[in-house]
Specification:
Helix content is 20%, strand content 37%. Strands 3-2-6-7-8-5-4 form a seven-stranded antiparallel beta sheet. It has a three-stranded mixed beta sheet with strand order 10-13-12. Strand 6 and strand 7 form a beta hairpin.
Length: 246
């Protein structure tokens, strides 16, 4: 069975600051072994994990300290001259290193989107007047440089309010405001991120519940008995050889 993903990694560059000089850039595209991302509807950022082979002494020679950025560009593997989108991540944690010979090692890193790092060093204390979604959009745009797209969103019910944000980080302030906002039926509002856009998405539960189901044949079940039946069905499933992977 041949299976080809929609996007591939065209470029992956680690950007490291070196005092007052120009930042050092290292292209690790050819060394990436695994790149995973996680999206959560209640998180305004994407988490990621990167595993790559360091065979050029990046960790030791260039003194990786955890404040480095990763610029990663995705595109169509059939049209590498036209990148589809670029994301920036910060190194948040060094998970593990495994020696592979005398001069190389595998490195596993946890990553977060760039605006999470900016959020960690910024506090706001400001007065706003407007509805909750407009205030959230203003904070994210002005303080974090992140535009917001209202996707599957009908609006909050609370109307115009005057709000004072009491010394919070931008993301903390947005979550605080969202916890007080509901739709006409009392459903919550969400601001979340996706790998495929540098804009944040604003949605509400009522609108999301109207979206057609993507997995009608594999619904989420909580029963341990049903899970056992599912496991038996999985054991009887047909398996295929992977002929080609891109």
């Amino acid at each position: 069975m041949s299976n080809q993903s929609q996007f591939t990694i065209l470029e992956a560059v680690v950007i490291m600051s070196k005092g007052e000089g120009n930042p050092v850039e290292v292209d690790i595209s050819a060394s990436i072994l695994e790149f995973q991302t996680w999206e959560h509807i209640q998180k305004p950022y994407v988490d990621a994990r990167l595993i790559f082979l360091d065979d050029f002494g990046m960790k030791d020679t260039l003194s990786v300290k955890g404040t480095e950025r990763l610029k990663i560009t995705f595109g169509d593997p059939q049209n590498i001259e036209t990148p589809a989108f670029t994301k920036f991540f910060f190194f948040s944690r060094l998970n593990d290193t495994v020696k592979q010979g005398d001069r190389s090692e595998y490195i596993s890193l946890e990553l977060v989107e760039e605006h999470v790092y900016v959020d960690a060093v910024k506090q706001i204390s400001r007065s706003y007047t407007g509805n909750f979604e407009d205030i959230c959009e203003l904070i994210l745009g002005v303080d974090l440089g992140r535009p917001v797209i209202r996707n599957k969103f009908e609006g909050s019910e609370q109307g115009i309010r005057k709000v004072i944000v009491p010394y919070m980080s931008p993301l903390e302030a947005v979550q605080w405001l969202l916890s007080r906002a509901t739709t006409r039926t009392g459903s919550p509002l969400y601001i979340h991120s996706t790998l495929y856009s540098n804009s944040l998405l604003m949605s509400d539960l009522d609108s999301l519940m109207k979206v057609p189901v993507r997995n009608p044949d594999t619904p989420l079940r909580y029963s341990s008995a049903i899970s056992s039946v599912d496991a038996q069905e999985q054991n009887r499933a047909k398996y295929y050889n992977i002929i080609q992977y891109n």
